[in-house]
Every structure is written in structure tokens, then in C-alpha cells.
Design a protein that fits this description.
2 copies of one chain form a homodimer. Chain A is mainly alpha-helical. Chain A is built from 6 helices and 3 strands; from the N terminus they run H-H-H-E-H-H-E-E-H. The first copy, chain A, binds a DNA duplex through helix 5.
DNA sequence: GCCTTGGATCGAAAAACGTCAACATAGAGG
DNA sequence: CCTCTATGTTGACGTTTTTCGATCCAAGGC
């Protein structure tokens, strides 16, 4: 349930040194766009933050996530799948329930990528 | 050309303390999703990195961006508009040409939001 | 005034996406 | 084995996104 998705962050953790360090080539852009696209939906962002709020090593059962939305269970399942395919979260079944947790390395990679090299916070 | 978009980052720079600090409410999620969605396209990521590569205060003429893609000029113009509406870039017309630059504060906001609070880099 | 050139805007077509109802699957407990 | 509950999967539908050609606007040069 968590094999092929993990490879995504495994092989590319160091692929993109930074947004501004050099123009991205097509492959880098396509790979990063997949992850940002996963973040580009309000439901998925809320799901991710609900899971991440459990802290390092924390887990959340799907049965806690689904009732927080006015959406059907299959829809939530679909969004969780997209987050997982993006390498942002992973999951494990334990008995009847499935638990999800965040993969912090994936988030860090994006944060490093976005961090402006010499940003002068003031907006002039 | 750059009024209403700037308000987006102006009023919410401090809205979202961090992904993991607390579950996002619907408004926060919707607002952030708009920005991440803008980053969720390979063409826009490449455009942004091409502009950002000019460094702090750097500008790029559209006439330098368009020929780098196998896409029509209206399509590039459309993507630049989405990046601008997301508050990530801004532009100004000077004479015949239009120049774009990055708004570093917007990128920093996302980076801060994504930075895991106590990430243990190792993926275990 | 009239061209020419750089960009934005306007439909329209195709593809991708979000959503649901229906169904399938995996364990738990009889 | 059968049933019940918790999730994932499938197929369809309406909406949004991406892309283009055609057109329009702004500025410069004649």
C-alpha cells in the first residue's frame, strides 16, 4: 500500500535546489507540479493539516477525518489517495481501521524549494 | 494592473501559522489552495523559476519567456495571469514590453507554512 | 493619420478534476 | 461461513482547466 509512492520522494529529495537558483527543466517542473497540485485543493489541504496536527509520528484514523467534511466517504478516500500518490502522506491498515500520517521530508523539500534565497521581507 | 492582487498577500501574510500547528478552517484552506493551485502546473512552475532566477528585484520581459515554451503566446499570457492573481508575481508595462518580477513575501509565506515544526529529516 | 509589434482578452474544444452512488474488499465477531 | 462495519475502487456526470485561433489594445515609428 505504500511502496511505489515512497520512491517518489526517495529519488528526488535533492533534485530541486531552489526556485530561484536556476530555471527548472521540464522534468523537474512536472515532478514538482504534481506535489503542488495535490496541495491545490482546500479539502486536501485541510486533510493534510488535520493529519499533520497530530505532530511528528502522529496518526489519524480515516474515521476521524471523514465526518469533518460535508463530502461522501469515497470522495475523502479519493483525496487521501492523491495526497499519498504525491508522497505527502502514507497509511497503514490496522484491524478494521486505516491510519494516515505525514511524511515530513516531503514537506521540507517543498519548503526549501520555495524559500527565497535572499528575501528582503519588506514588500517595498 | 497590480492593485487587487496585492491585497491578497497584504491581508493574510500572517494568517496561517503552519500546516501542523492546527487544522485549517475552510477559509484558510481555500485561500492557501488558490496559491498552491497556481504552483500546480509545470508551465507555471517553469515561468516562476525563470522569473525568480533573475534574483531579488530582477525582472523578465514576456518576450524572453514565451519562446522558451512550445505553447502559444495567449497560453503563456494566461499562465502569467494566474500567477499574478495568486499574488506570486507582479508586472509593469514599460514602453512596448511588459516586465514580470517575483513577490518574495508570497513565496516565503508558503515556505513558512510548509516547514515542519520539528521534522526529523530522516525518512526512517 | 496608418502600419507594425508586443501582449492581453475572447470564445470554443478537449482534457483533467471533484463528486457521488454503487460496488468491491478486508477484518472482526459471531 | 455469514454478516456487519470501515475503506478503497469504479463509472458516470457536471465543472474547471488548459490550450488554441481570432481579435483587440497600447506604444512606437513612419
Amino acid at each position: 500500500m505504500s511502496k511505489q509512492e515512497l520512491e517518489v520522494i526517495g529519488q528526488d529529495t535533492a533534485c530541486c535546489p531552489g526556485l530561484a537558483s536556476a530555471p527548472l527543466d521540464e522534468d523537474q517542473a512536472a515532478e514538482l507540479a504534481k506535489v503542488f497540485k495535490a496541495l491545490g485543493d482546500p479539502v486536501r489541504l485541510r486533510l493534510l493539516s488535520m493529519i499533520a496536527s497530530r505532530g511528528e509520528g502522529g496518526e489519524v484514523c480515516v474515521c476521524e477525518l471523514t465526518p469533518a467534511f460535508d463530502l461522501s466517504q469515497p470522495t475523502i478516500s479519493h483525496h487521501l489517495k492523491l495526497l499519498r500518490q504525491a508522497g505527502l502522506i502514507d497509511c497503514e491498515r490496522r484491524g478494521t481501521w486505516v491510519y494516515y500520517w505525514v511524511l515530513p521530508a516531503a514537506l521540507d523539500r517543498l519548503a526549501v524549494f520555495l524559500k527565497a534565497p535572499t528575501a528582503v521581507e519588506a514588500l517595498a
